[in-house]
Design goal:
The complex is a heterotrimer of chains A (300), B (282) and C (466). Chain B is built from 13 helices and no strands. Chain B has 282 residues and is mainly α. The radius of gyration of chain B is 23 Å and the shape is globular. The two termini of chain B are 26 Å apart. In chain C, the strands form 3 sheets. Chain C has a 7-stranded mixed beta sheet. Chains in contact: A-B, A-C, B-C.
């Protein structure tokens, strides 16, 4: 019997091997490369290659002096504008969809529809938004004809307008995805618990906050973490909506747009250092979230 | 069913209003896209219209007959890449999750922590190194580097792991062993079917993500016959700003989303049923 | 912090080795244009790879190159009568993909197999200096190919030769087109406001900035806008700067007074209501809409390609537009062809360059078929007189060459630098925010500084005129 046990642990290694081999080759080696170059001055000017010259932490220092923190703040604001409605609506929808007493006609239809926006390419979606919210676009037309505004609003020229548009787009693209996830989580809660709570006289609000929310914590953590990573990686939508400039006044410039402008100028050193910062920040954020939502690994 | 705690009418009405607004928003963009795809360039410039125009066929022919623009080829490439990615991503993530869940071994905890740590790594961070590596391995300008790396998808793994925790009693694995199942057999014949709902959800997510990915393919793909749909659209929009035909652009976007909408609608029943049946218990 | 230039360049150093032997302007046989060190045979290669960002060059080569036999169905390969194939490698300009891929390929030039090497590529004026740089040497000087710019290209406009030359005056790029800009105006609006649509009469009203401002006032009184936006006038100012944005060897961006003039004038005109408020920038749908027949915008500033590909595209009705003198001469765009160092098809490169950019019959054909204003002084002067063959029904029967030809002679190109593309783009962007009233003047300056130093890490500071 002892023999068998050894065998089993061998299988564990075999099963996780492909993942690790693949990760090692396609992510880890490139990651090391990135980290290494972050300590070098290494970029292209025109076609000339400058460096690589070892400069220690110089790149990290000059990034701190640059507008990086401002871009980080932009990214955070853009993310939160989209995320708050996303999580609230998703929780609401998920709890309605799984609540047997909530008799909504066409539930099936709604469930299918909410995920649809996620199917459109972010860039195409941004293009449509651009057309719809243009000065001569339909939104301004409607607002003008019902007399809400006198002159067309140039959404893309105001900070609030651009940020809201980006937020709305992110919300629309991702709330369906989140709803499906949360639905899966809530369905997993044993009906016995709900029944018991009912006997104890819980109303639906109490039930939601006292029972549903705590019980779906792991998936909530998953949603939060993936959303934070997604938010940090926000790129296509603001890039296309603002033509890569983060206009107006660079208030929609996100970290990855910043990173991309370094990649574009082939500034490997600076891009490397920025990547390392990004990695550290996302790791810290996710650790906090993970800890917050899983105070102690409790099984079931 | 007990009826004493029926939700109030106000709540139901609120729910309907919200759902209808959301549905409107979701479908509105598809509608605009379809309308725009049926209008000619000059019509599009004359401003927005809620009614479709008569140029659907003409725009479609423009896209389909553009010799420099291999639409069919692009769709096939995208289908291959997204299909393969979704398949191997879900399979190997499930395998990894099962490996970590069902077996006890020394590095188990370390491996799990490690995957959780790399979960947060943004793709762009490694993009430059990735490109250099791919070039060195001779896989530049091929579809393989778009597919193979999806074996290691920490996020999908995490989802699968949570799912296994809730829906796979280890006793089932023991029972299979006693019945003489080999380890791989157990996984393929017993574990995989149980994981179907989770696989369905993640398969569609991966498929869509891969279908719409522009960043990595733009770095790696060079030749026309290997381009995926998002690169083709960028090519169409960017290469010829000298004679930009917006009708054609919208048509291409329209053509590009048809396959995933169809696939999604076909699978949606199964996905949503799967999710609601199985559920991720914790 | 002193920036060091560690490796002068990737390709050049190695490629130089193989080609060092073949200076001079001998247009000799296939074999003696090849240096001795080429890895494979000394014959001309069988595949010519041409990197481009649209099909402009392709259509013109297919139309005029005498050796073209047939074109593949998908257009990606052109077969020549001598069995050679031209492979067109087309990448989008969007997000700088074209230059990125080209740079990558040029970087691998030394190690790539002969059939994969870049043989020719195109570059636009905005970034051509990056590729004509003498030190980097990725583009073969025309003399080395056996083209003598002084005799073979004698009929070309002088400023196109200046653009195609490196800092030592060695010409490395040539073009078939020439892009002097004109003021393209709406005839119906002219009739309505001025009672005439005659180009000469209108030209009197647009000949310089002050006159144009007065004209704008007249137009405004009738509810029209003289131009669509301040972005349209930018090229005219930026073309006139006496010094390059960044002079050679310096790491300082010097913003010329002319550019601040653009900001101030634009602000004035914008506040006065001369521009269409619904348009901001170019290449977007608002801009295209301003070209449509329903628009209230009187004129655009465009070279020949602008009429053909922008205005016509958005306003297909014939006879609605005319051309006349712009307030200031300017050149906008122009696609140059370059031979790539390390190519094994030098003989073909030479032939294509000569037939495409120096053969007057071919150039006339291109002018007639594609409406380019082509790079031949004598023929264009003739065309200016030849109303029978060159008048355009789209322009209401007007012969636009009568305006292009003199304009082309007056074009003075601002000195170029490698950083122009970024400077132009980021300057307009930063001050666009100011003009739209989002930020104040000093903030715009600051934003430009931040953006330009981010884009080009080797630049150190920005100097503003007093």
């Amino acid at each position: 019997m002892k023999h068998k046990k050894v065998n089993y642990s061998k299988w564990g290694y075999i099963f996780i091997l492909p993942f690790f081999v693949c990760f090692f080759i396609f992510s880890f080696i490139p990651l090391l490369d990135t980290i290494r170059y972050s300590f070098y001055e290494y970029y292209r000017s025109g076609l000339k290659e400058i460096g690589p010259t070892f400069i220690g932490l110089e790149n990290y220092k000059s990034l701190l002096q640059s507008d990086m923190l401002k871009y980080a703040a932009n990214t955070f604001i853009l993310w939160i504008i989209g995320f708050i409605p996303q999580i609230v609506i998703a929780l609401l929808l998920a709890s309605w969809f799984v609540d047997a007493r909530m008799k909504i006609r066409g539930k099936q239809f709604f469930k299918v529809v909410i995920y649809l926006p996620n199917l459109i390419m972010a860039s195409a979606f941004a293009m449509l938004f651009f057309a719809i919210f243009a000065k001569t676009g339909p939104i301004n037309g409607i607002l003008e004809s019902i007399g809400v505004i006198q002159k067309p609003i140039d959404f893309m020229r105001t900070t609030l307008g651009t940020r809201s548009l980006i937020g709305i787009m992110n919300f629309l693209m991702w709330f369906g995805n989140t709803t499906i996830m949360l639905m899966a989580a809530i369905m997993g809660i044993s009906p016995d618990i709900f029944e018991a709570s009912e006997l104890d006289g819980c109303n639906s609000r109490q039930r939601f906050f006292r029972i549903t929310l705590p019980l779906i914590r792991p998936i909530l953590a998953y949603t939060l973490i993936t959303s934070i990573i997604g938010g940090l990686q926000m790129y296509d939508v603001p890039q296309i909506l603002t033509n890569g400039q983060g206009s107006p006044d660079r208030t929609s410039m996100t970290l990855i747009m910043f990173l991309n402008s370094h990649l574009k100028s082939r500034n490997y050193g600076m891009a490397g250092a920025l990547s390392v910062y990004l990695f550290i920040v996302s790791a810290i954020l996710c650790f906090i979230v993970y800890r917050m939502l899983n105070p102690k690994e409790e099984s079931r | 069913m007990d009826t004493n705690k029926k939700p109030s009418h106000a709540r139901i009405i609120f729910a309907y209003i919200l759902l209808i607004i959301l549905t409107f928003l979701c479908l509105f963009f598809f509608y605009i896209l379809v309308v725009n795809a049926t209008r000619s360039h000059s019509q599009l410039l004359r401003g927005f219209s809620a009614l479709p125009g008569g140029y659907f066929l003409k725009n479609f022919m423009n896209v389909a007959n553009d010799g420099t623009f291999p639409m069919i080829r692009g769709l096939v490439n995208s289908l291959i890449v997204s299909g393969c990615s979704a398949a191997i991503c879900t399979y190997f993530s499930a395998l990894t999750a099962y490996g970590l869940y069902a077996y006890d071994f020394k590095l188990k905890k370390a491996a799990f922590t490690f995957i959780m740590a790399i979960l947060v790594m943004p793709t762009q961070v490694t993009a430059m190194g990735f490109l250099r590596l791919i070039t060195k391995m001779g896989m530049y300008d091929s579809l393989l580097p778009l597919i193979i790396p999806s074996i290691a998808s920490p996020a999908v793994f995490y989802f699968m792991y949570s799912y296994l925790q809730s829906s796979l009693p280890l006793s089932l694995v023991e029972a299979a062993r006693i019945d003489g199942c080999r380890e791989f057999g157990t996984f393929n014949r017993i574990v995989l079917p149980i994981m179907k709902p989770a696989i369905a959800v993640q398969a569609i997510f991966t498929f869509v993500g891969s279908w719409n990915n522009y960043f990595v393919p733009a770095l790696i793909i060079q030749s026309k016959d290997k381009m995926t749909v998002p690169i083709l659209i960028a090519t169409l929009r960017g290469a010829d700003y000298m004679n930009q035909d917006l009708g054609k652009v919208y048509m291409m976007i329209f053509v590009a989303i048809i396959p995933i909408v169809v696939i999604y609608l076909l699978l949606s029943k199964y996905i949503i049923a799967g999710v609601t049946l199985g559920g991720v218990k914790e | 912090m002193k920036k060091r230039l560690v490796s002068a360049f990737l390709v050049a150093a190695m490629a130089m080795g193989t080609l060092a032997g073949c200076g001079g302007g001998n247009g000799g046989s296939d074999s003696d244009t090849q240096g001795g060190g080429s890895a494979s045979s000394s014959d001309e290669g069988k595949i010519i790879n041409i990197y481009c960002f649209n099909d402009e060059l392709k259509t013109r080569v297919n139309a005029v190159y005498s050796k073209v036999d047939k074109v593949s169905d998908d257009g990606s390969t052109t077969y020549l009568t001598d069995g050679t194939e031209i492979h067109w490698v087309q990448n989008p300009n969007q997000d700088g993909v074209y230059q990125q891929k080209l740079d990558e390929a040029l970087g691998n030039q030394a190690t790539a197999s002969d059939d994969d090497k870049v043989d020719m590529f195109v570059a636009e004026v905005d970034y051509i200096t990056k590729y004509t740089d003498a030190e980097i040497d990725v583009a073969i000087p025309l003399e080395e190919l056996g083209i003598n710019p002084d005799t073979d290209l004698a009929d070309q406009y002088e400023f196109t030769k200046t653009i195609g030359s490196d800092i030592n005056g060695v010409q490395r790029a040539t073009t078939w087109q020439c892009c002097p800009g004109l003021l393209v105006y709406r005839r119906d609006i002219a009739q309505d406001v001025f009672g005439t649509d005659d180009p000469e009469a209108i030209g009197e009203k647009t000949k310089d900035w002050d006159t144009l401002a007065a004209t704008a006032e007249e137009l405004k009184a009738k509810g029209y806008y003289v131009l669509s936006s301040y972005a349209d006038t930018f090229r005219l100012y930026s073309n006139a700067i006496p010094e390059a944005w960044v002079s050679s060897g310096s790491t300082t961006v010097r913003v010329d007074q002319k550019l601040l003039d653009w900001v101030n004038d634009s602000k004035e005109w914008l506040d006065a209501g001369y521009f269409d408020p619904s348009v901001s920038g170019q290449w977007n749908s608002d801009w295209y809409t301003a070209m449509a027949p329903e628009s209230k915008v009187f004129s655009f500033l465009f070279p020949a390609w602008g009429i053909d590909t922008q205005i016509k595209e958005n306003c297909p009705d014939e006879g609605l537009w005319g051309v006349t003198t712009p307030p200031q001469t300017f050149n906008w765009g122009g696609t140059f062809v370059l031979g790539a160092r390390g190519s094994d098809d030098e003989e073909h490169i030479k032939e294509i360059m000569l037939e495409l950019t120096a053969d007057s019959d071919n150039l006339v054909k291109i002018s007639q078929d594609y409406l380019d204003f082509t790079n031949t002084v004598t023929e264009m002067d003739k065309a200016a007189e030849d109303d029978a063959n060159f008048s355009s029904s789209y322009l209401g029967g007007q012969n636009p060459f009568a305006y292009y030809a003199p304009a082309a002679k007056e074009v003075k190109m601002a000195p170029l630098s490698t950083y122009d593309q970024g400077c132009v783009e980021l300057f307009q962007n930063a001050f666009g925010d100011y003009l739209q009233g989002t930020i104040d003047y000093d903030k715009a300056k600051e934003n430009f500084e931040t953006a330009i130093l981010e884009r080009y890490p080797d630049l150190t500071d920005v100097q503003w005129p007093e």
